[in-house]
Amino acid sequence: MHFLTVPGYTGSGPDHWQTHLEHDYAGFSRVVQRDWETVDRDRWVARLDEVVRGIDGEVFLIGHSCGAVTVAQWAAARYDHRVVGALLVAPADIDAPDALPAIQPQAPLPTSELPLPTHLVVSDDDPFLALERGHELARAWGSTLEVVPGGGHLATRDGYGRWDYAAHLISRLTGTALEPTSGRVPLAQ
Fold it and tell me: What percentage of the chain exceeds 90 in pLDDT?
């Protein structure tokens, strides 16, 4: 199985949990957008589709913020059956009236059930996604939901650099023991 991280607006920096997953475990790669500062729904979804179709075998997607939104938008419009599921962490509410102007071009969020298993992780104090809205998205998308108390946007500045729990979730959701790249202990399924 291949694990594909999908960063959001501004990308995921060197201490972001997605970057740590890519470095710590085998079989991970990243969707790289041409411009991380200019969120463009059609271009970002097309790029994700291009990367997915270039991978042989099963794929599991790991999106954060606007990357989680990109995954949901891709699944709603261009789903490929080789994608066996997705972990969607802290999707940004691009439809909110107070959404950052830079991410508003990604609107709208999908409103129907996604054609693949998804697990949504939200925080009860995310400045970019109200908890109630997180519950609404989980219901609409058919996602299982997990709430992290006091997690903010579940990003580096919120203390989520190396986040071993994300690796644990991926292992649990896929039923696959992640293979460490350098001295890390494998996670149980």
Answer: 95
Angle between helical axes of 17-24 and 164-174 (0-180°, round to 10):
60
In the chain, the domains with their CATH numbers are: 2-174 (3.40.50.1820)
The closest of 128, 126, 141 to 72, measured between CA atoms, is 141
User: Tens of pLDDT along 137-176?
Assistant: 999 999 999 999 999 999 999 999 999 999 999 999 999 9
- Alpha-carbon distance values, 79 to 26, 60, 116, 152 (Å): 24, 12, 8, 30
Confidence of residue 131 (pLDDT cuts 50, 70, 90): very high
Burial track 30-43 (b if 16+ CB lie within 10 A, e otherwise)? bbebeeeeebebee
Token pair recorded at residue 158: 């919120």
C-beta neighbour count of 16 within 10 angstroms = 21
List, in order, residues 6 or more apart from 97 with CB less than 8 Å away.
Answer: none
Q: Could you give the 3-state DSSP secondary structure of residue 45?
A: helix
CA 95 to chain centre: 18
Omega prior to 149 cis, within 30 of 0 = no
Task: Note the pLDDT tens digit of each residue in 34-56.
Answer: 999 999 999 999 999 999 999 99
